[in-house]
Amino acid sequence: MKKINEIFYSLQGEGYHTGIPAIFVRFSGCNMKCSFCDTLHEDGIMMSDEEIISEVVKYPASMVVLTGGEPGLWIDESLVDALHNEGKYVCVETNGTCVLPGNVDWVTCSPKEGGEVRLNHIDEVKIVYVGQDVSVYLDLPARYYFIQPCSCSNTEAVIAYILKYPKWRLSLQTHKLLQIP
Q1: Helix 49-56 and helix 77-85: axis angle, to 10°?
Q2: Burial annotation 124-143 (CB, 10 A radius, 16+ → b, else e)
Q3: pLDDT score at 37
């Protein structure tokens, strides 16, 4: 059983897959307490893998985003296998502090200050910028490095940072700009 906050269908609003239709499975609970967190993720209902799959297959997209809270507290190979059996491409958005199953298709690591990244594979690093030193995250072995404004509030500072350090790419929370889930 896994604690699920919500399952919904929308467009991916951030990072490499921005604009792609996706089914979001938002898990409840997190092992980090970030002051800028925009998710109320303590509430939820316990669901079996079969119940999760039953909800996911109601939507036509092939991409599923396991997010949170911290999905690494809940997910395992059997859930990812079940999603693959339904033809789904499985993405995980994680703070990186939990070891993930090896059968995930795409890993977005959004590390937080004070958390130790324990991942063997990272496709993209995505940092919410609140003025902190993010240069340390360039040491993470990822294919892409994104930095994004915190709730669209400090966009000018993020742009200036990227222009100074061009290894970073801009990620906007387009779902917030478009006012979609």
Answers
A1: 30
A2: bbbbbbbeeebeebeeeebe
A3: 62
Indicate which residues carry an active-site annotation.
Answer: 24, 30, 34, 37-39, 93, 175
**For 40-84, how does the pLDDT look when each residue is reduced to its tens digit (9 = 90+)?**
667 899 999 999 999 999 999 999 999 998 999 999 999 999 999
CA-CA-CA-CA torsion sign (148, 152, 153, 154)? positive
- Which two three-digit tokens encode residue 85? 């059996």
| CATH number, domain containing residue 71 | 3.20.20.70
What pTM does this model have?
0.93
In single-letter form, the type of residue at position 135 comes to S
Give the range of the structural domain holding residue 136, as residue numbers without chain letter.
2-178
What the block records as the tokens of 63 is 């991409």
Going by the annotation, the residues of the binding site for Mg(2+) are 39
What is the SS3 assignment for 125?
Answer: strand
- In the chain, how many domains are there? 1
Residues making up the binding site: 11-13, 26, 30, 34, 36-39, 67, 69, 110-112, 181
